[in-house]
Amino acid sequence: MTAGADAPTPVARPGPHEGTGRAPALLLRGIDKAFDGKPALTDAGFRLEWGEVHALVGENGAGKSTIMNIAAAVYAADAGEVVVDGRDVPLKNPADAIAAGIGMVHQHFRLVGRFSVAENVALSLGGAGRKCSVAEAARLVREKAAEIGFRLDPAARIETLSVAEQQRAEILKVLLLGAGILVLDEPTAVLTEDEAQALLSLVKGLAGQGHAVVLITHKLREVAGYCDRITVMRQGRTVLAEAPIASVTMEEVARHAVGETSPAPVRSAAESAGAEVLALKGLSIARAGGGLAVDGLSLSLRAGEILGIAGVGGNGQSELVACLNGLLSVAGGHLDINGVDMTRASIAARRAAGLRVIPADRFDSAMARGLTLAENLAMTEVPTGAYGGAFRLRRGAMRKAAEQAIADREIRGGGPATQAALLSGGNAQKLLLARELAGGARVIVAHSPSRGLDMRAARAVHVALVEAVAQGAACLLVSEELEEVIALSHRITVMNRGALSAPLNAAEATPARLGELMVGHA
Amino acid sequence: MLDTALLIRRQDVPVWLSVATYAGGLIFGLCAAALCLVQLGVPANALWQEFVVQTFLTQQGLGQTLTAAIPLVLVSLGAALSMRVRFWNIGIEGQLWLGAMAATWISLHDFGPGPLRLWLMMAAALVAGALWMALPLALKLLWNVSEVISTLLMGSIAFLWVQHLLFGAWRDAATGFPTSTTLDPVERLPLLGWDQLHAGLWIALAAVVVCALLTGVTRLGFYARAVGANRRAALASGLPVLLTVCVFVLGSGALCGLAGAVIVSGTEFRLTQSIGAGYLFSGIVVAYLARSNPLGVLVVAFVLGGIYTAGNVLKVFYGVSEAVVLLAQGIVLMSVLCAQLFGDYRIVTRRRA
């Protein structure tokens, strides 16, 4: 084994719950942490035993990642103690944590894209004071991969690998560094259904070998079957500690996480067949690297309906949304809005026709972090003259409109003059919805609108979309979250390799049926 | 005993704090520069006399300071405009040379009636500066050619072109020096009676007002803010990004060109090989320190003009070398920039329990 000299070595599975006499793998007690005076953790605690998979659940900003980053010594706690395997070791920086056997797999992998898997491993081992050649690292990678049961080419360059493979490389790296304690931050967020299952089985297997594993997640449903115990955090405090997974229900967990009874799922309004507002006829879009990202796609969207496009990410969804927005040009086919050909229309013309886009990454192609809330809100309407003429911009009107929107949409975390960068994900999304769903929205294209949001914020997004549609708009919901698509859509189609399946009605669209279509055997 | 000192990024920087760190950095830098000069043998009381009294508080000194500040204001406004849309204009001197050449060309050929000549020279300089910028801009927009490289190289081309003219067709036949012939009185910016101070002052102030209005109260200014903050989001929001970028970038070139004409017809009265030297560095520094704010540019350029004036006096009367003057200027600049750390971060020290 390649474990570091001081690292606790995992022992053969003693079983997580029965007293083995062994000290807990990780014990955090009375942890306080504030960022620039704003408390993120207050008297938070966490206890992890050897040989278990432990789910750490909570909303965005509940402190899950923060407390684990303290365990991994990425952050320093303001108060409290961290005990690893029964020893109170001072963890001053991430290297100390690695030496103590704590390995964290962050949401954004710590890998050099241009290096091969083996080179990345050699780099990290060298950084931890265990220099080895790339060839040696390649051998270690191969052995370890075989040991835990998956394939990974040590010579493959990271940037050529899929996200799932990159994640495996990262896990391998952390294990080769000698981690007995493995912390995975939202590991399934970037994975498809199948990949997620494979990862979770892998994790379960590692726990079986005696490792201790923490899964940080807000998709408990997905991981529940693979976890032994669960800890729930809310607003920086541990509200449910070390409950055996079998003893709690989803509703209980949700109540602990949100602090009130779990919100009922959004019911979509009854379908009303309105006029066709968006028609795509044989639309093709070129891919950046050559070839077609979207190939001869056709669909028809009517006022008053939500058409869901499910599918695994990377099948042309981003290109489709960017093309509808007007950021990518059309390679072939037609795009009509309200019966008018808008294939080559400018972005401004599309907006004037009532097209609104909520992209998957709001700070990439919708809003600017460096602008204030008021400026972000006003941005799309300034060219129309809503905020004064070409030579006299009315900043006062912008501020008033922003105050109104902040109150109406319950946007928390700042006033009109606050920079958008300071908002949490949920509030930033509310800000974008306030802008895009305000007057004149007829065709709403929403791409993964609840990605990365906690339950409450996701619900607010869903309610806003359903309301807009009830008022006569149409919505094209492009999402990789099956649950979201099924809950909201009147008709559902699946995107696979740049093409759409025939739409199913909400009643026929079961997860199983959609799953088949996603895999592409339909 | 202190064990650790941590830097903690502030979530929000209040206005008073940015002002305080800025002022603190400036004062610290001036003191450090003064210490440096005293160490090199410049008497301390002379520093006060030269830096403050002679550069800002006497009519002659203030006139010199303002004269030095005029072209500085223009090039810095130019730098600020392009920075606003994230276009790095490293060819400030090139556009300045083009403006100077265009103005000289009008004067050498006596185009237009006398009373209009000066206006023609200024207009030609604006156009020439903008045109010199048009090529890098087109390259950037069409093929994404790095403007850092293209504007810089265009600057070298402009300087070679000036030399070509000064050693050739435009050489002053009377003296044989590589300069153009002196301007007619009608082609010179009128003096205002304070030492060398000329009517370019009004041009610079007008440019500040126009830029302040453009960035502060017009829609185009708002678009530029959006483009600077996130170009793709501005595009996706339906803003006229192309128009905005063109106006700000060509405006940047035009202002730098205007600076060239103002130097030729305000202070030098001829085209020489040395009029453009140093404005690239100064223009970017001023625009950066002013955070691309036109009114800020006015203040910073005025202060820097004072430092130049004082620097010249130090060189001539105290035998301080050019290098030391540059060193002093660099110290001031560095401390202002470093002081931003205290605005962006909170420093927490703690004792280990």
Compact summary:
The complex is a heterodimer of chains A (522) and B (353). Chain A is α/β, with parallel strands linked by helices and 522 residues long.
Describe what you observe in this structure.
The complex is a heterodimer of chains A (522) and B (353). The longest helix of chain A has 16 residues, at 193-208. Chain A is globular and about 70 Å long. In chain A, strands 12, 15, 16, 17, 18, 19 and 20 form a seven-stranded mixed β-sheet that branches. Chain A has 522 residues and is of the alpha/beta class. Chain A has helices at residues 64-71, 94-99, 117-127, 134-148, 163-176, 193-208, 220-223, 250-258, 317-325, 347-352, 362-365, 373-378, 395-408, 425-436, 455-470, 482-488, 511-519, and strands at 26-35, 38-48, 53-57, 79-84, 102-105, 181-185, 212-217, 229-234, 237-244, 276-286, 292-302, 306-310, 332-337, 340-341, 355-358, 443-447, 474-478, 491-496, 499-500, 504-505. Chain A has a domain at 276-354 and 440-519: P-loop containing nucleotide triphosphate hydrolases (Rossmann fold, 3-Layer(aba) Sandwich), CATH 3.40.50.300. In chain A, 32% of the residues lie in helices and 23% in strands. Mean pLDDT of chain A is 86; it is low at 1-7, 11-19 and 261-265. Chain B has a domain at 71-289. Chain B has 13 helices and two strands; from the N terminus they run E-H-H-H-H-H-H-H-H-H-H-H-H-H-E. The radius of gyration of chain B is 22 Å and the shape is globular. The model of chain B has no long low-confidence stretch (mean pLDDT 90). The chains are: A alpha/beta (522), B mainly alpha (353). The interface between A and B is medium-sized, with 37 and 30 residues.
What labels describe this entry?
heterodimer; A: 522 residues; alpha/beta; 7-stranded mixed beta sheet; 17 helices; 20 strands; B: mainly alpha; two-stranded antiparallel sheet; 2 strands
